[in-house]
UniProtKB/TrEMBL annotation:
This is Cupin type-1 domain-containing protein. The lineage of its organism: Bacteria, Pseudomonadati, Pseudomonadota, Gammaproteobacteria, Vibrionales. It comes from Vibrio marisflavi CECT 7928. Residues 248-330 form the Cupin type-1 domain. It comes from the Bacteria. SUPFAM superfamilies: RmlC-like cupins. Signal peptide: none annotated.
Length: 334
């Protein structure tokens, strides 16, 4: 396979995303039944074997997305690994706590790193369809989702059953009702006491609003673009705006008026999410040179160890860079 064929296979176009509508046990629960789940890189925490996965191979983290119309919710759940969101379209009300008693609204370009061991859910508010990218830590994302007891109980009334092995049984699609010993146990009141809680004030350090992005001294000594260090370890040499130990970090670049980010190589696995504009990515693996143009919403899984450069070719490019470390090393500029 040539390098060009390889990078073409690692590109997921926004306009070609294939949603799953039955990925989780709340997929038929009224108020949660019109949501789309996207597995872009890795299967994430999708529970249905029928979920489409664009790129299956992962390298320490998964990239997914959630899309839904106004008023539709993703029900209360918790993770044991990192879950970060980048809002791409619309506005989302994120709510958290054992009963979802706290909330905050995030809009386009806002990012949140949600602490583990915390129940969370979200719904789209306003009039527009909402879409946000998700970053899930780990290759297997901790083995799945822990659902609030009310979610499991209600889902069974709509033919969806969650088993102990985290698989989803759908009786409306012909599956048999699982025996009681195979079902995922419902959390007890005692179990619920082990989960954490955060007030709105305690959650604020885990959020960076797009309007509050602060550029950093960039890695490339350029003056015609900006670099942002958005989420990562407090022990990193980057001054991340959200300081969280998620095993991943999120950076971004703003390239205007034909600006070019020079060729560089990183030790960490990286994925690019092209948020706006058209961006030309040139890839060099030491032997071959290849190119791909990223348009708005496209996701590119960069071959590990390859050198890349970025060039703005239309509009103002804004590109997120997700790295497979919350304490990344500086890039090697070529």
């Amino acid at each position: 396979m040539s390098l060009q064929q390889q990078i073409n296979s690692q590109l997921v176009r926004y306009m070609e995303l294939i949603p799953g509508t039955q990925a989780f046990i709340d997929a038929r629960t009224p108020g949660s039944h019109l949501k789309d789940n996207f597995c872009i890189i890795g299967a994430g925490v999708a529970e249905s074997s029928r979920q489409h996965v664009h790129i299956r191979e992962t390298s320490g983290f998964n990239i997914g997305a959630a899309g839904q119309p106004p008023g539709i919710k993703n029900s209360l759940h918790s993770h044991t690994t990192a879950e970060l969101f980048i809002v791409f379209k619309g506005s989302f009300r994120l709510y958290w706590g054992n009963e979802g008693e706290y909330d905050a609204v995030l809009s386009k370009g806002d990012i949140i790193s949600i602490p583990t061991n915390l129940f969370r859910g979200f719904e789209v508010v306003g009039r527009d369809y909402g879409f946000m990218y998700s970053v899930l830590g780990g290759d297997d994302s901790g083995g799945g989702v822990t659902w609030h007891p009310s979610v499991i109980e209600e889902s069974q009334g709509h033919g969806l059953y969650l088993c102990k092995d985290k698989s989803l049984v759908d009786t409306q699609s012909g599956d048999s009702v699982p025996s009681q010993e195979k079902l995922m146990p419902v959390l007890t009141s005692k179990d619920m006491e082990s989960f954490d809680n955060y007030t709105v004030e305690q959650m604020l350090p885990y959020v960076v609003k797009h309007s509050d992005y602060q550029s950093v001294v960039n890695d490339f000594s350029g003056i015609d673009y900006q670099q942002f260090a958005l989420t990562g370890s407090p022990n990193s040499e980057y001054d991340f705006q959200v300081k969280s130990e998620d095993d991943v970090s999120i950076h971004a670049f703003a390239l205007n008026n034909g600006a070019t980010l020079p060729s560089y190589r990183r030790d960490e696995k990286q994925v690019l999410i092209n948020f706006s504009g058209d961006t030309l990515v040139e890839v060099f693996d030491g032997e071959e040179l290849a190119q791909v143009v990223l348009t708005t919403g496209d996701v590119f899984n960069v071959p590990k160890g390859a050198a890349i450069s970025l060039e703005n070719i239309r509009g103002d490019s804004f590109v997120y860079q997700v790295l497979g470390s919350d304490n990344p090393t500086k890039p090697e500029v070529l």
